[in-house]
Amino acid sequence: MISSAVYLAEWKGNMTDYNKILEISPFSLERSHKHELMSKRLVELSKHHYNNCQEYQRILDVLGYDLDKISSYYDLPMIPVKLFKNMELKSISDDAVVKTMTSSGTTGQSVSKIYLDRNTAAYQQKTLVKIMNQLIGNARLPMIILDCPSVVRNRAMFSARGAGILGFSIFASDTIYALDDNMKLNTEGLLSFIEKHKGKNIFMFGFTYMIWQHFYKELMAAEVKIDLSEAVLVHGGGWKKLMQEAQSPEQFKLALQDVCGIRRVHDYYGMVEQTGCIYIECEYGHLHASIFSDVITRRTRDFSPCDFGERGIIQVVSMIPESYPGHSLLTEDEGYILGEDDCPCGRKGKYFNVTGRVKKAEVRGCSDTYEQR
Amino acid sequence: MNNLEKYNQVFMETLDVEVDQLQDLKYQDIDNWDSVGHMSLVAAIEDTFGIMMDTDDIIDFSSYQIGKEIIKKYQVEL
């Protein structure tokens, strides 16, 4: 196994190389090693964006940050995700942009715009592959996409949903969309797909609420039984709507197992602003940070880091973004860290729970305080 | 049709390009070779040659020329 120490020695006085970081096993670094690697890379990225993105530079100057004095990534400035809705934040020239990713937040019509160049786009995809390989292995699998085909058809403007599906499609050897464009379950297609790939692991991917609404409920209503007991499902997108239907993650899992026999169901946490660095739920129900990124929970009153178990606003840091200053972000989500390096599943790094969105008033409060600091 | 002709054909059909565009063609150079087009291209190449590429090779498949080197790894002689 490659350790971070080798590269840190190699990079002494030089820049880090993300392609080398990708060679380190995603859940292998203990706290001190991860801290050292992340601090070097993230301080570097901050300086890079300071020098290449005028708006970022202005923000840091106003806030009075001196990047030369920062040695831990815990002390780096964080950009509220909301800023990507109000400003065009990028550290590359317009003609280096190869892809613009957008997300519509859950409220309002404004969309975040994330600008990617070739390198950052490739890093995102490679990172996703490294993290996912831990879960589903290296082989590409038959894949059931629990969504409708039209979601990736509008290629001019990529929604977070389309980008998610496309990003995960790289793990597919053969794909089928479980829903048609009227959001009806394609039962016959599914049955023949499952028959065709009998005896193989099947990979399933979709968004939590879509799965509940258009897969689970329709399967419940249908007369057919499908057998997905050998499949692994990865789903994301948040629980807000399911909570409104009074469904807990545990109930979601049990309901799915009941209707199609699936036992391996993994939620993930991630956002379009840091695509690639997803946090996957382990066999014990905990979300895990890989070595490529980290979560820090912050107290509302002074943004100091929370203790384990203490709920706070989630900050996410990622070693990927070179084309836009999104390497350290204050999200609008709340959660708590459960522990670090000692999850019974064996993965190193922090493990945590997300409890939901920060209440509106608090969000405003925190970004206001933030800008005036 | 030999393998090189088949390889060219897949590009021309999937990405809607002419043969004289191929030599310098890179991922994201043209609208049709975006991330959606990329997955279609990969699927078409795999079907044509009966191979299955590793995920890393799908990501690294970033130009017409690099693609040739990659599929050689799968015993496709061009």
Beta-strand proportion of chain B: under 5%
**Amino-to-carboxy terminus distance of chain A:** 43 Å
Tell me the number of structural domains of chain A: 2
Relative helix content of chain A: 25-40%
Uncertain parts of chain B: none
Structural class label of chain A? alpha/beta
Number of helices of chain A: 12
Our count of helices of chain B gives 4
Can you tell me the CATH class of the largest domain in chain A?
A: Mainly Beta
Biggest β-sheet description of chain A: 12 strands, mixed
Name of the level-1 CATH class of chain B: Mainly Alpha
User: What is the annotated CATH architecture of chain B?
Assistant: Orthogonal Bundle
Q: What Rg of chain B, in angstroms, do the CA atoms define?
A: 11 Å
So, the CATH homologous superfamily of chain B? ACP-like
- By oligomeric state, this entry counts as heterodimer
Protein chain pair with the most extensive contact, residues per chain: A-B, 20 and 14 residues
Features:
heterodimer, A: 373 residues, alpha/beta, Luciferase, domain 3, twelve-stranded mixed beta sheet, two-stranded antiparallel ribbon, 12 helices, 22% strand, B: 78 residues, mainly alpha, globular
